[in-house]
């Protein structure tokens, strides 16, 4: 039987994505103070990424956007954000799931986070899925402990094959 472990690495990744979410929420509500600006690198081919086809053609695997002076309509949801940026004097709407982000940086304060893309990892990808996995693991461990206790108390029955009692 394989030993199962709590996936703290995934929990930490998800918690740090919450930092990105909160920074974007504050920027959406109040704008970017002082010299703050964000560099966000994301995987363009991840599920849920919505960008114009010509941008996907230019950036088939990864793209970096800058939120500094000219960004519009920044909207942040639990699992993604949307923003309108200007590309060659044309405004384009981008929708980017947090799971697609590989790097977040605010150079004005020398802060950066680097992520493993959630969509390419096995296992849970949201905080709810992580909590569900942790709860299920705790229940499995409790059931194992309860079964072992019953066996130790001698209260569990023993299965005997009836063939051993039959005359041949």
UniProtKB/TrEMBL annotation:
Renumbered residue ranges of the record's region Disordered: 120-155
InterPro entries with a match to the protein in the record: SspB (IPR007481), SspB-like_sf (IPR036760)
A Pfam family per the record: SspB
The protein's name in its UniProt record: Stringent starvation protein B
UniProt source species: Skermanella cutis
Origin organism lineage: Bacteria, Pseudomonadati, Pseudomonadota, Alphaproteobacteria, Rhodospirillales
């Amino acid at each position: 039987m394989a030993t199962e472990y709590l996936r703290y690495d995934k929990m930490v990744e998800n918690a740090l994505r919450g930092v990105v979410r909160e920074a974007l929420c504050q920027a959406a509500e109040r704008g970017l103070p002082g010299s703050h600006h964000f560099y966000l690198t994301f995987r363009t081919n991840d599920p849920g990424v919505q960008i114009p086809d010509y941008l996907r053609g230019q950036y088939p695997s990864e793209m970096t956007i800058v939120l500094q002076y000219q960004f519009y309509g920044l909207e942040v949801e639990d699992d993604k954000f949307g923003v309108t940026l200007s590309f060659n004097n044309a405004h384009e709407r981008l929708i980017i799931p947090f799971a697609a982000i590989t790097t977040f940086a605010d150079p004005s304060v020398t802060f950066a986070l680097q992520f493993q893309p959630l969509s390419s990892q096995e296992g849970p990808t949201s905080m709810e899925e992580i909590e569900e996995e942790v709860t299920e693991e705790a229940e499995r461990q409790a059931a194992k402990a309860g079964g072992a206790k019953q066996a130790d108390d001698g209260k569990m029955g023993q299965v005997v094959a009836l063939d051993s009692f039959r005359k041949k």
